[in-house]
């Protein structure tokens, strides 16, 4: 069947030509069917066509919108996961750093205590015990004697009869706690120490008791101070040495006064 208007071949059942829109009905009722009816039918067909097109476009738009929402939701979820992973990684790294720092600190403290407690196999020596204090001083116990020392001094390696070897990292002063086997009178031991060091002793800078002595010796640019306690044939003493005229000299004198008073 062909369109009578434009000659296009038509499919069975078509009411209008899909090229020119001409009605394809056989004009058996030419006198009865008016031109207006054909126009109305054509108009209705076009409206239906437009409606179907709008429905198709609406479905496509809805599908795009859903896809966009889905992609947006997926991106948001991915972003949240990334943020969470970063937070977890930061927490783990921070924990490891703190744990490592704490471990290093504990290790340094332990090394210092081990170093402070280090003793060599010498005759007539006793074990040393290091403890902490809260007033800026720590202390070392040797036998039944306790000798305080400034906590902020740095610990060094000990040797021979030394039980503690310290250095002030700021002012350069040194403090060494030692013990040795001695059987002589304290005043004689004090004289021997003066002969060993040399230098001069100012009036009032040397004192001796029944089992102890203190002495301060000036050797040019150095000041040497010692307090020694002798008990049961064992002498425990500390030597504090600093530079004369040091900016920390007044502080060092305070240290010496405190240590002398509490070394017993």
Give an overview of the whole structure:
This protein has about 260 residues and is of the alpha+beta class. It is about 40% helix and about 25% strand. It is built from three helices and ten strands. The longest helix is centred in the N-terminal third of the chain and has 83 residues, at about 35-115. Mean pLDDT is about 80; it is low at about 25-30 and about 100-125.
Key terms for this structure?
alpha+beta; 264 residues; single chain; rod-shaped; seven-stranded antiparallel beta sheet; three-stranded antiparallel beta sheet; 3 helices
Indicate the topology.
Elements: H1 35-117, E1 128-131, E2 137-142, E3 145-150, E4 154-155, E5 162-167, E6 174-181, H2 186-197, E7 206-208, E8 212-219, E9 222-231, E10 234-243, H3 249-262
Antiparallel strand pairs: 1-2, 2-3, 4-5, 5-6, 6-10, 7-8, 8-9, 9-10
Short note summarizing the structure:
With 264 residues, the protein is α+β, with helices and mostly antiparallel strands. Helices cover 41% and strands 24% of the residues. A seven-stranded antiparallel beta sheet has the order 4-5-6-10-9-8-7, with helices on both faces. A three-stranded antiparallel beta sheet has the order 1-2-3.
């Amino acid at each position: 069947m062909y369109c009578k208007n434009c000659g296009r071949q038509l499919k069975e059942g078509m009411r209008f030509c899909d090229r020119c829109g001409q009605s394809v009905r056989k004009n058996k009722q030419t006198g009865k069917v008016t031109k207006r009816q054909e126009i109305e039918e054509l108009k209705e067909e076009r409206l239906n066509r437009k409606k179907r097109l709008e429905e198709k476009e609406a479905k496509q738009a809805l599908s795009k919108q859903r896809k966009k929402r889905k992609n947006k939701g997926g991106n948001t979820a991915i972003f949240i996961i990334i943020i969470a992973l970063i937070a977890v990684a930061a927490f783990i790294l921070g924990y490891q750093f703190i744990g490592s720092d704490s471990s290093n600190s504990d290790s340094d403290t332990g090394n210092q205590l081990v170093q402070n407690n280090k003793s060599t196999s010498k005759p007539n020596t006793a074990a040393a015990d290091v403890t902490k204090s809260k007033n800026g001083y720590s202390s070392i116990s040797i036998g039944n004697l306790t000798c305080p020392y400034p906590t902020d001094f740095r610990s060094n390696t000990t040797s021979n009869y030394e039980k503690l070897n310290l250095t002030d990292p700021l002012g350069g002063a040194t403090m060494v706690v030692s013990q040795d086997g001695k059987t002589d009178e304290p005043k004689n031991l004090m004289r021997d120490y003066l002969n060993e060091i040399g230098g001069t002793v100012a009036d009032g800078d040397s004192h001796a008791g029944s089992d102890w002595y203190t002495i301060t010796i000036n050797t040019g640019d150095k000041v040497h101070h010692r307090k020694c306690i002798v008990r049961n044939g064992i002498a425990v003493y500390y030597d504090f040495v600093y530079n004369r005229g040091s900016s920390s000299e007044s502080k060092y004198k305070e240290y010496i006064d405190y240590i002398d008073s509490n070394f017993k």
